[in-house]
């Protein structure tokens, strides 16, 4: 049986593009997540996590929901700076999160914006073993006490 170099080239190219596509989508943090309020247990919004060229993760709100019995929040009224009075949909709430070089399930160095209070918190996160839950620990700078927020992957 005669081998065709053109066939081998096409097969090799096809394998490489498939591997590249798999690698681009295999990042467990990248994708759509539901945010769960730690105080009420309700899902408040959907966010999309993306990774930039510097390997930093950020999350942007793509959908908001209100807690039953509470006033719906449409804009970041208590935010300061460029986020002041901006619509929640499209607002970036998590920035600068990077993977811990010693643990592929830990992420550090982030900043979390709470649209309700307008406060900014230091953030670190842990991807749970099933890959479907992200626990974000946020705290004020210099404080050991903080909050744990759970995001569930869609």
Give the secondary structure arrangement, pairings included:
Layout: H1 5-25, E1 31-36, E2 43-51, E3 57-64, E4 92-100, E5 103-113, E6 120-127, E7 133-139, E8 146-153
Antiparallel strand pairs: 1-2, 1-8, 2-3, 3-4, 4-5, 5-6, 6-7, 7-8
Concise structural overview:
Helices cover 14% and strands 43% of the residues.
What does it look like?
The protein has 154 residues and is mainly beta. The chain has a single domain, classed as Lipocalin (Beta Barrel), CATH 2.40.128. It is built from 1 helix and 8 strands; from the N terminus they run αββββββββ. The chain has one helix at residues 5-25, and strands spanning 31-36, 43-51, 57-64, 92-100, 103-113, 120-127, 133-139, 146-153. Strand 6 (120-127) and strand 7 (133-139) form a beta hairpin. The model is unreliable at 8-24 (pLDDT under 50).
| SSE succession | HEEEEEEEE
Q: What do we call the CATH topology?
A: Lipocalin
First-last Cα distance: 49 Å
Into which percent range does the helicity of residues fall? 10-25%
Which residues sit in consecutive blocks of at least 5 with pLDDT less than 50? 8-24
Provide a count of the helices: 1
State the CATH class: Mainly Beta
Coarse shape: globular
Structural class: mainly beta
């Amino acid at each position: 049986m005669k081998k065709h170099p053109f066939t081998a080239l096409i097969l090799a190219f096809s394998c490489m593009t498939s591997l590249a596509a798999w690698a681009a989508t295999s990042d467990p943090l990248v994708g759509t997540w539901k945010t769960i309020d730690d105080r009420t247990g309700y899902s408040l919004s959907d966010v999309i996590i993306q990774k930039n060229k510097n390997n930093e993760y950020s999350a942007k709100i793509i959908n908001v929901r209100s807690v039953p019995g509470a006033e719906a929040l449409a804009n970041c009224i208590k935010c300061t700076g460029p986020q002041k009075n901006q619509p929640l949909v499209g607002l970036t709430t998590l920035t600068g999160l990077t993977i811990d070089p010693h643990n592929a399930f830990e992420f550090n160095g982030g900043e979390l914006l709470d649209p309700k209070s307008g406060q900014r918190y230091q953030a670190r996160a842990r991807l749970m073993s099933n890959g479907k839950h992200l626990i974000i620990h946020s705290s004020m700078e210099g404080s050991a006490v903080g909050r744990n927020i759970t995001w569930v992957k869609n």
